[in-house]
Amino acid sequence: MPMWAYKGVDPRGKQVNGVRDADSPKMLRSLLRRDGVLVTDVAEARAGKAARANGASGLRREVDLKAIFQTVKTAEVAGFTRQLATLLKAGIPLAESLGAIVDQIDNPKLKSIVVEVRLKVNEGSALADALGKHDKVFPGVYVSMVRGGETAGNLDQVLVRLADFLEAQVKLRSKVVGAMIYPILMACVSAAVMAILMVAVVPKITAIYADTEKVLPWNTQMLIWVSTIIGEYWFLIALSIPFAALGFRAWVRSDAGRSLWDRMVLKLPLVGGLARQIAIARFCRTFGTMLASGVPLLRAMEVSREILGNTTLMKVIDKAREQIAQGESIAATLKRSGQFPSIVTHMIAVGERAGQLEQMLTNVADAYDADTDTRLSRLTSLLEPLMIVVMGGTVAFIVFSILGPIMDMNPTL
Fold first, then answer.
1. pTM of the prediction?
2. DSSP class per residue in 198-228
3. Do 14 and 60 form a contact (C-beta atoms < 8 A)?
4. Per-residue model confidence as pLDDT tens digits over 313-368
5. By three-state DSSP, how is residue 40 classified?
6. Beta carbons within 8 Å of 173's beta carbon, 6+ residues apart
7. For residue 4, what are the β-bridge partners?
């Protein structure tokens, strides 16, 4: 059934547009009339470009422009995946299932992508090939798992695993972001308070030392120097912050910079262990899900390595793939690297021997996710008093640096 891009007016007189399937423009107008929409323009939607007939180019451009500034969230892709899995499990053909989902999608960009995917499927393309043309929304791991499901004939089951996988990713990301919001907010507030003290308060108080010939203590001299620098060059400092951030970002994106930064992150106290644990949990869950979906082992490792997000660990996977291709076991190659904890390699070894590698990888991911929750809670609990102590210590330094010389000048105080 062809898809049509339409433009019309709803019962309230508001301009509406969208895409819907129908046997003909006449059928489309009839269907929309039942919904109270008066169609003013209609054109057949085609994969990759709009039809030029009947002045449809302007309409199609309008639809596309609305999608340009939209982003597709992982949670929305997970919802689409679960809906598609449910329809396929109920025995509804793929193209018809995609058409049914289109009307349920609120995000214009995701809706336009699903419409194009459905058109490609109608033209005879595989679902994985159609999804692969939108790699920013459907990454390599998604496409590879769908391809494996199509090949094995269990696409509905693979889509269920994919939905679970994406929802687990969203949940983990939300936990990490939620744990870091409060410390970041506290740091920003503390920096603002210190800046106000240095610019507006400290100079007025320390001005009383200007007429004295007495040598000030080193801490008072340092306070006055810092206050003067911030007060006179605050605009340069404010400008340097975004430039420094952009420079750091460019350095991290370079090959040498990213390699060095990733090694440093893994060695940081507290944070390094947590970063390693999150990366390994994501890798194990992705690797296990892909294997369970019928993706070949080496291909699954190749795609799963991108999930790690750390070049040091990614190099370990690259080397492991080469050694596994020569006949070595996964657990042995990962253990030799020294980057994967012994408990992980031991569980993988048990899974290999028992023929349950997929389940064992999922168990590792579940255990690490649970431990990540605990460590995030501990880290947050530790950061709160630590930041209070740092802020209190800074304020105490300022107070003693100001009052010290005053007390020396007035011994009776």
1. 0.65
2. IIIIHHHHHGGGTT--SPPPHHHHHHHHHHH
3. no
4. 899 998 988 888 888 888 888 888 888 888 888 998 998 888 888 889 888 888 88
5. strand
6. 74
7. 20, 44
